[in-house]
Design goal:
Blueprint (H helix, E strand, L loop, with lengths): L5 E7 L2 E9 L39 E4 L5 E4 L1 H7 L6 E9 L8 E9 L4 H14 L1 E9 L2 E10 L2 E7 L25 H14 L11 H15 L24 H10 L6 H8 L5 H22 L1
Parallel strand pairs: 1-5
Antiparallel strand pairs: 1-2, 2-6, 3-4, 5-7, 6-9, 7-8, 8-9
């Protein structure tokens, strides 16, 4: 069972369907690590000041948005956090549309929705209604502090939520040099069109995802296996833990807090909120506090004796 990313409800009209959101895709890319050819040591990333070429620490980095050629508007972590849309735990369906009305270019990331809290029957009712109507739901939802436009689609026994790109994220095609629409306007002869249609018909078949796989990944992993069997493996000495690493940041991880709040049904006591919001003390500070407490206790015992 995959982990639940989000718990909430599908809402349209007076209908309320409690659901959990689950990932429907996974990355299966080849993980290439960088190594130093001379020593086989891992190669990492550094934060470099582009003007001076010097490395800088995390606490000296701020977030800025370009405002013209040589100006930036700087935003603090608190300002960015306060601008986040509030999590409503609701997939609010705004309308129902034909699936063919949404171009493939708008599709972004798929998720599974599964009924929870005895919502099976009304979940099935919505799924079967959408299938019978030949429509999908167009909704807004907030996932991990980001608002998405999304399509609610019946697929087999499941309702899927596919997040969509916003219109401003799609490049307009008028930036490209494309042939005019229409066969006559594009200079296509009737005979050429007939032959092309015959070829398409000859190559047409039902879509089966199992017929397709990543041939590049298969070839690379087969090469890795051959090299491993031939003993062409380079040992990499583990790096020692760095001394004097940067102190922990006091910035609250809102994403983690929201996940834990959602897992608890969004009902947190005020004391729990304060405890979560309080930044954890560094280990060194805890040791000093413990030592100070022990020292105070010894002094009190001596005074009493």
């Amino acid at each position: 069972m995959p982990r639940t990313l989000w718990k909430g409800a599908i809402s349209f009209g007076l209908v309320h369907i409690p659901v959990g959101l689950y990932p429907a895709s996974r990355e299966d890319d080849i993980d290439f690590d960088w190594l130093d050819r001379r020593t086989m040591d891992p190669v990492g990333y550094k934060r470099i000041n582009k003007r001076t070429g010097k490395e800088i620490t995390k606490e000296h980095i701020v977030k800025g948005i370009a405002n013209g050629a040589h100006e930036y508007v700087v935003l603090s972590d608190d300002e960015i956090r306060n601008a986040y849309p509030k999590t409503t735990q609701t997939i609010e369906i705004e309308s129902f549309v034909q699936a063919s009305e949404i171009p493939f270019v708008y599709l972004e990331r798929p998720y599974y929705l599964a009924p929870i809290n005895k919502g099976d029957k009304v979940y099935a009712l919505l799924r079967e209604t959408l299938l019978a109507a030949g429509r999908i739901g167009l909704a807004r939802v907030v996932i991990q502090t980001k608002q998405h436009l999304a399509a609610l689609v019946p697929v087999g026994p499941a309702l899927m939520l596919n997040t969509l790109r916003w219109p401003n994220e799609i490049r307009p095609w008028d930036e490209l040099k494309l042939p005019p629409e229409g066969t006559k306007e594009a200079g296509i002869k009737p005979g050429e069109l007939s032959m092309a249609q015959a070829l398409v018909d000859d190559m047409s078949k039902d879509f089966n995802p199992d017929d397709y796989h990543d041939e590049f990944r298969d070839a690379v992993m087969a090469l890795v296996d051959r090299k491993r069997e031939a003993g062409e493996v380079h040992a990499v000495t583990p790096l020692e833990s760095a001394e004097g690493s940067a102190p922990p940041s006091n910035v609250i991880d809102l994403t983690e807090l929201l996940k834990r709040s959602l897992a608890g049904g969004g009902k947190r006591k005020a004391a729990d909120k304060d405890e979560e919001a309080a930044p954890a003390k560094p280990a060194a500070a805890r040791k000093r506090a413990s030592a100070a407490s022990s020292s105070t206790g010894v002094k009190k015992r001596k005074a009493s004796s």
